[in-house]
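Chapter review: from sequence to fold.
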Amino acid sequence: MKVTLLHTVRSVYESFPNQLLKAYGKDIEITSLLDEFLVTNAKKKGYFPPENRKKLYLDLVSASLESPDLVCVTCSSLTPFVKEFRSSFDFPIVSIDDAMCKEAVMRGENIAVLATAPTTVDPTVSKIQMEADQIGKSVVIKSYLDTEAMTLLSSGDVKGHDARLAGLARTCQDADVIVLAQASMATAKKLCEEATAKIVLTSPETCIREIIAKLSEITK
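The token string follows.
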């Protein structure tokens, strides 16, 4: 089996493939593409501009040339746009937060979304609301943004990044479930759980389970 991963953040590019290999526990070929422009340009513009859509599509075309059994896009900011392109390819395309958003709705009614990138907030909140609407469940979603945590992570200060997110999580007193919206935030899961004693969901963990399930379906 072959999986191609499309990343926009270097820390996820460096960590996610090994996490997938370890969890899958079978022979699997994993290749990774890193396109930081998709995030840096959106951050600079303040929205996801047309050139980003075009570049994302071209990245997926590039991935298709590797003949993968499955492609996973590991950036939550790209989730709404990945949906637009799925029908253009003959392999499944998994978005990093698909499974996480579904699980959040299943596990609580008051959902806190923590993010460190402004471009991730609206897509994640919208995705969770869509999942709730599909099953007819009423949910309350509150979002919290800490861009300084991203600055710390970008400078290599993982401990500082995680500590800031744990402090932010402590303010989510009404939440049943806390969603760490970006894959790059997954390192803070344990601290957030310890700080709140609440359910904390991360996209790499839930996405890897989804990938394994889809690969199992393909090999049947």
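Two observations follow directly from the output. The first helix runs from residue 10 to 24. The two ends are 12 Å apart (CA to CA).
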